[in-house]
């Protein structure tokens, strides 16, 4: 699946928490979200590089456009995350693990990197076989 197809698929299934999503669907959509958020922060003027003696860091705080972007894309990224977990045979409720700082997000990223269940599972047919 190409990057454009993955992004289209994520928006086509905007609020669908049912079914399964392949790794490529997830891993093309996430960088798209990051790049667009970075571009919007440049337009909003809310990102900046802070330098000082022995220090350099990048800060990001969403302005109005960034807040709108994140709000509009909250549902698709949650739905895609749930479908990705379904591909592994796990419930979408495991996304709540992301509320645990650092550790929860690391677990979810590790799971999102794993190959999905081959063949059909309780959540539907294999997205790679379709």
Question: Would you give an account of this structure?
Answer:
There is one protein chain. The protein is mainly alpha-helical and 130 residues long. Helices cover 52% and strands 9% of the residues. It contains four helices and two strands; from the N terminus they run ααββαα. The chain has helices at residues 3-12, 23-44, 64-87, 103-113, and strands spanning 47-52, 55-60. The protein has a two-stranded antiparallel sheet. Helix 1 (3-12) packs across helix 2 (23-44) and helix 2 runs antiparallel to helix 3 (64-87). InterPro entries: DUF805 (IPR008523). This is DUF805 domain-containing protein. It holds the Pfam family DUF805. Keywords: Membrane, Transmembrane, Transmembrane helix.
Features:
membrane, 130 residues, DUF805, transmembrane, mainly alpha, transmembrane helix, 2 strands, DUF805 domain-containing protein, 4 helices, 52% helix
Describe the protein's topology.
Elements (H helix, E strand, L loop, with lengths): L2 H10 L10 H22 L2 E6 L2 E6 L3 H24 L15 H11 L17
Helix pairs in contact: 1-2, 2-3
